[in-house]
Design a protein that fits this description.
The protein contains five helices and six strands; from the N terminus they run H-H-H-E-E-E-H-E-E-H-E. With 164 residues, the protein is an alpha+beta fold. The chain has a six-stranded antiparallel β-sheet with strand order 1-2-3-5-4-6, with helices on both faces.
């Protein structure tokens, strides 16, 4: 039996094209101008990270596994969290994502705040943006109850302080 090689490579070519389109749509293509504008992801203690974004941190949680501070700067209001371990950070993010919200994620740190605030801080801290989905199917990122650390919301930054 003879197989037609042209026919067998068509699905592979289509799959490669589809991956390229998906990567371009999500900003995962090298040379993307927005990706080029993002600095190398910052590292450091809660105080060092806060200093990089001109925040005078108001520490609300100071535990061995997590430290959190409320920040208010020209960019807006947000919560800066640092973690003792990568695993602790990932567990916290997984739980926080259930409440919705927008998160800027670096190595052992997370900023939770309004989508615009997170975008502004990313220009100085680098990191990756993650968006959670609330249980009711609405994504967070707005004010009040979004899980973003905004004051006045039922899911403001203080609720996440128990995550480890």
């Amino acid at each position: 039996m003879r197989t037609d090689r042209r026919r067998s490579t068509a699905p592979i070519a289509l799959a490669a094209l589809a991956l390229t389109v998906v990567a371009a749509a999500t900003g995962c293509v090298q040379g993307d101008e927005k990706a080029a504008d993002v600095p190398k992801t910052a590292t450091g203690s809660l105080e060092e990270l806060a200093a990089k974004v001109s925040c005078e941190p108001n520490v609300s949680t100071d535990a061995e596994e997590i430290r959190q501070a409320n920040c208010e700067t020209k960019d807006g209001t947000y919560v800066l969290s640092t973690f003792a371990t990568d695993r602790g950070q990932r567990e916290w993010i997984n739980e926080a994502n259930d409440y919705g919200g927008t998160y800027l994620v670096g190595r052992r740190w997370v900023v939770s705040g309004d989508e615009k605030v997170v975008a502004a801080l990313r220009e100085r801290l680098g990191g990756d943006v993650e968006t959670g989905t609330s249980h009711d199917g609405h994504t967070g990122g707005g004010n009040g109850g979004s899980g973003t650390g905004d004051t006045g919301g039922e899911h403001s930054g203080g609720e996440h302080s128990g995550h480890s």
